[in-house]
Write a structure and sequence with these properties.
This protein has 86 residues and is mainly α. It is built from five helices and no strands. The longest helix is centred in the N-terminal third of the chain and has 14 residues. It starts with 8 loop residues before the first helix and ends in a 6-residue tail after the last helix.
Length: 86
């Protein structure tokens, strides 16, 4: 269990990426949300974990700032498909 608290969304993104690497996979799915949460000391909201998984998968788990830029570049598509309920 990871005892270091997550303070920012970037730390969460990086922690999920570490989890992904530990699972030896190139992409995570909705089935990975709860197992990831169970590896953390504090409870995380599943929606925020899923959001970061979607961002990471969409940009092939590049840097956090690249994932955010990908989100900004494609925000209309995210809205159209109601990915983040914006």
């Amino acid at each position: 269990m990871n005892e270091k608290p997550i303070r920012t969304e970037q730390e969460l993104y990086n922690r999920i990426d570490e989890y992904r690497k530990g699972q030896r996979t190139s992409a995570l799915t909705t089935y990975d949300v709860q197992p990831f949460i169970e590896t953390q000391e504090r409870d995380l909201h599943p929606d925020i974990v899923l959001k970061n998984i979607i961002l990471g998968n969409a940009c092939s788990w590049g840097r956090y700032d690249a994932a955010c830029q990908h989100f900004e570049d494609n925000i209309q598509a995210f809205r159209h498909f109601q990915v983040f309920n914006m």
